[in-house]
Design brief:
This protein has ten helices and six strands. The chain is of the alpha+beta class and 201 residues long. The protein has two domains: 91 residues, Winged helix-like DNA-binding domain superfamily/Winged helix DNA-binding domain (Arc Repressor Mutant, subunit A); 93 residues, Winged helix-like DNA-binding domain superfamily/Winged helix DNA-binding domain (Arc Repressor Mutant, subunit A, Orthogonal Bundle).
Length: 201
């Protein structure tokens, strides 16, 4: 990758250090392969494709994300777990919706929104854990969220009965104008996802 960077003189930014310039080049390469792939790529795939280590990949991702947001581009870099993909910027949603003939936002009931809030902050979480927080049955709300593509089953809890675990999807991030889960507003009383996953039904 280093050799390729030094050969692409047209992309060199004189005010950047060699490490910063390398991050810019890796970011540009990431943008290219994500655009062509048309699907989320795993970090492992990107490391192999670009022939870089994890530290260099992380710097490239951070640089690309900053450039897209700082220059108010029409796309954003979305990261969810080990997956990375390009998505449209949330402020461009009305134009994309108009092109595709889609409604601006999914219409969710209050129960569905409450359930989504619990899942987004406590994921991965079981149905029983959701209902323990809400105090009511959440079956219909969960079905609605899954149908809208905002929530999905992500595995089984390592507890008695191995209950299903639910978590938000990349579509959730897109709908709410986020690129990463850590952009959710922080609440001190929200338990960490890891502690929730250990609780059983």
């Amino acid at each position: 990758m280093q050799k390729q960077v030094t050969q692409q003189n047209g992309n060199v930014r004189p005010h950047l250090s060699p490490d910063e310039q390398m991050a810019v080049e890796i970011g540009a390469a990431i943008e290219s392969v994500l655009f062509v792939s048309g699907r989320p790529l795993e970090r492992a795939e990107l490391r192999k494709l670009l022939d870089v280590d994890d530290t260099s990949l992380t710097l490239g991702l951070q640089t690309l994300q900053h450039d897209l947001e700082h220059h108010r581009r029409g796309i954003r870099l979305q990261r969810l777990g080990e997956q990375v993909q390009l998505v449209t910027a949330p402020e461009m949603a009305r134009y994309v919706a108009a092109l595709l003939g889609l409604p601006m936002t999914a219409k969710l009931t209050t129960a569905a929104m409450e359930t989504l809030a619990v899942i987004s902050y406590r994921q991965p979480v079981t149905r029983a854990q959701i209902e323990a927080v809400r105090g009511v049955n959440s079956d219909r709300a969960l079905v609605s969220l899954i149908q809208h593509g905002l929530v999905a089953e992500v595995g089984r809890a390592q507890t008695i009965g191995r209950p299903t675990l639910f978590a938000t999807t990349p579509e959730f991030l897109q709908q709410f104008g986020l690129t990463r889960l850590d952009q959710l507003p922080h609440f001190e009383d929200s338990p960490s996802p890891s502690s929730q996953a250990k609780e059983g039904e």
